[in-house]
Amino acid sequence: MRIRDTGDLWWKNAVVYCLDIETYQDWNDDGIGDLPGLLQRIDHLADLGVTCLWLMPFYPTVDRDDGYDITDFFGVDPRLGDAGDLVALVRTARDRGIRVIVDLVVNHTSDRHPWFRSARSSVDSPFRDYYVWSPTKPPDDPSAVVFPDQETSIWTRDDKTGEYYRHRFYKHQPDLNTANPAVRDQIVKVVGYWAEVGVSGFRVDAVPFFLADTAKTEGDDVDHPHDFLKSLRSFLTRRTGDAILMGEVNLPYDQQRQFFGDDDADGTSDGDELTMQLDFVLMQQLYLSLARQDAGPLATTLASRPTIPRDAQWATFVRNHDELTLDKLSDDERAEVFAAFGPDPDMQLYGRGLRRRLPTMLDGDPRRIRMVYSLLFSLPGTPVLFYGEEIGMGENLAAEGRLAVRTPMQWTSGQHGGFSRARRSRLAGPVVEGPFGPAHVNVADQRRSPDSLLTFVQTLVRRYRESPELGWAEDVEILSQPHAAVLAHRSTWDDASTVALHNLSPDALVVPLSLPDCLPSDDGAVTLVDLLADDACEIGPDGSAELELPGYGYRWLRIRRPGSRRLL
């Protein structure tokens, strides 16, 4: 591996930014964000250093599930603009060095989709087998219901034919039947179409559900569910050589590795399924560590991450567009996180997650907020930001469910945060109020402040991009040191190596480190150069160093050997 390889596998050290067009920027002042508005803000993303823009669903929709109830996989919802606007966005983003990926939501459709309208009209409809039907209602399994506050069963009777259709999500989102080759062909057409438009890949929604029916039909042309994912990856690679599939796979690590295409779990194959997977396991342990002010759960999880194929990557995050799920924690662990960050039942969702953003969970403590984002960007993998994180936006709990964190972007301190000039009643969602509202948290003010969170995140992005070892390291080395509150880890790739220290407690500490491979040579001592501050120290003749960390402190330390030609 050499530095030139980072241009081929661009996603291994990308900076991904997820946004909902509907709540980002309204340019025609109808109260709904739109593609022309996003286009006007593309330079904000470029200034931030974003290299990959992830668009939440923009397809025609009934909008009963914030755009995930799709009525046409090949269109653009007219509220947001048209296909020409999307092409203009993709092209302009590319000019700014930003690739665009889009949500691929093919686990289900809206019940208003023409396929389902036909399917429910008659058992003889040519689209009947596009969905999953049962002449009698199967036994209810409460654990199979994804949204237990809205649904009690995953089966609903359709009055027209008297049969039951399956919907793992809402009843207005019937599941597609991927056991049907015709459905798989349609999915391939969707992927091919948007690749031709110019997108650089897809975030694949609910992957395990999406594959659940594949290969279940006798005589099917797919022998194993994962074969379809492999064929989809192969098709996309043929059409667009460097496009990606980033999957939502909230499963334990031993099951996640299969979705990379590592069937024998040896980590040596060149992954031929998902290119990237969001690391839900690590995210949940991060919040447990923050709640306890103990880096142990995080360190243990990092050390247990399986080796993955060379052409694969973990996507790391501290917030996403859904509830902040804690379903992989034990009941007692989840209770700890709830007590620390969401003690009010209204802050919780589905009994398994939180509907809050990080700054409010941390009571707005700027030291702690910056420490967490420093940690995010230093973790081995590709960081993913949810819009507004760069300025420290909060949530609005007056919004329903997951929409609490999908509030309008806060551009200025003016009306509606500069999102729209429409009347409040017409806005796509309620603006955040109180200390995290636009009067106190907005892009315009932070752009002009060298001490703002926005400026800090810009620095993290730049340093991350200059440190390919953070994205490319095959394994993370957890460094031994005596403080439970400190995570000390090291990432090494090629001739580059960086040590990151993060203090999860409010107490100042001195962290002793032992780096036995960093002994001085005849050419001089090995130095630890702080990438986030104007500081450096020499490693002792025995490979030791002592480093100060303030409360909630953080340091990125590049190991610089004599004669190194890397810029610092």
UniProtKB/TrEMBL annotation:
<dbReference type="Pfam" id="PF00128">
    <property type="entry name" value="Alpha-amylase"/>
</dbReference>
<dbReference type="InterPro" id="IPR054049">
    <property type="entry name" value="SupH-like_C"/>
</dbReference>
<dbReference type="InterPro" id="IPR017853">
    <property type="entry name" value="GH"/>
</dbReference>
<keyword id="KW-0378">Hydrolase</keyword>
<dbReference type="InterPro" id="IPR006046">
    <property type="entry name" value="Alpha_amylase"/>
</dbReference>
<dbReference type="InterPro" id="IPR045857">
    <property type="entry name" value="O16G_dom_2"/>
</dbReference>
<dbReference type="InterPro" id="IPR013780">
    <property type="entry name" value="Glyco_hydro_b"/>
</dbReference>
<feature type="domain" description="Glycosyl hydrolase family 13 catalytic">
    <location>
        <begin position="18"/>
        <end position="406"/>
    </location>
</feature>
<protein>
    <recommendedName>
        <fullName>Alpha-amylase</fullName>
        <ecNumber>3.2.1.1</ecNumber>
    </recommendedName>
</protein>
<comment type="similarity">
    <text>Belongs to the glycosyl hydrolase 13 family.</text>
</comment>
<dbReference type="Pfam" id="PF22157">
    <property type="entry name" value="SupH-like_C"/>
</dbReference>
<dbReference type="InterPro" id="IPR006047">
    <property type="entry name" value="GH13_cat_dom"/>
</dbReference>
<keyword id="KW-0119">Carbohydrate metabolism</keyword>
<keyword id="KW-0326">Glycosidase</keyword>
